[in-house]
Amino acid sequence: MRKNLYIILVAVTSLLLICIFIFSKKQKVVTPPYKERKSNVALSGEWLNTKKAIEGLLAAIEQNPDDYKAMLELSQAYIQEGRITGDHAYYDKAALQLLDRILEKQPDNFDAMCCKATVLLSQHHFGEGLQLANKALPLNPDNAFIYGILCDAHLELGNYKEAVAMADKMVSIRPDIRSYARVSYLREIYGDIPGAIQAIRLAVEAGYPGLEQTEWTRCVLAHLYESTGKLDSAQYEYKISLRDRPDYPFAIAGLGKIEKAKGNYKAAIAYFEKAKKLVTEYSFSDELTDLYRLNNEKENADKNAQEVIEMLSPQSEVEGESGHGHYADKELAYAYLKINDVKSALKHAVIEYQRRPENIDVCETLAWVKFKNNETSEANKLIDKAMRTGSKNPVLLCRAGLIKIKNGQAEKGKELIKLALETNPFLEIELKHEAGAYLAQK
What is the model's pTM? Predict the structure, then answer.
């Protein structure tokens, strides 16, 4: 009997010791690994160098779990990988995990705060990004990058005067590719297209040819040419981008948009299908929806339309389970319009408007959905709000014209449509056809 009690006592004691050991042992934090790049972007020397650098940072963190400098550099590398591969769902989550580890131990780490704010803006959590950037600002008020983050946050929230002030401050501290690009976008918003082109040219010239950031700004320059009907200039810039960064998907898609504008739908489809294979980017599938319809490929069009909705939906593996989540209600509103689901489009447009009621793009989105839902009066109020900065965006002008006509302001509406077509004679085909019916009326 005593022997049995002794055995039980030993067993219980051993179990207790094991439990104490397990729960007292510090749990090892797993650092998120990188993903191998796919397709042609995996063959570049740039990826080999990036991969080597990332592996070095992972090794440094493995050796010293408190190496916060390595964690910061790894988070920055992951943010850039998200841009290049389009896999924001994975890399946003990975970067946030690293940055939260740093900020838990070093809550006033300025660089970590800036990086986290950048990820929040990427996920369209603009209010949170602005709050964090404002918290970081006093720690380093002479840093150009923090003003870029503040500019982006204010811009997306529709605080345009504040955005201009932040861009001015940024460019005064450090005139470079990042500050010039922000100046360009703000000039575009305020209707100064020549000034926007001038600023984005400075951005391109300030960048190193072939780097992703440089070629992104070159594609912005090409888009400005494209949206004002200068297709040859746009095509020239897209081709330079592909010369300096072969297989850059946004330049390939840009050539697809040129072919679409010219009515060469089969060639345009080929470009977008190629771009789609290179990077995760919903807009390529979205463009393909329109192109397949224009090319009388209804089955492919319907398939792509549904694919876009699945990519943007909260439960999506592409943009969903990223720890924090990616807001994409504005994009979903347009996606649902393409399948004539106005009810769902309205739902998402309203959600985005409640989040960002002063942003002119969001006001335009809700106005257009309201127009499609025959809520003409509300659409008219919203489109006026969307045009308050004087933007010369031809799509905005054309939509505003159609809304004005339906609201009983026929002459004003026709003037806006004419201005849109004068700005860009190669306006979106379906929108141009919709507007053309009213211009034909006497």
Answer: 0.89
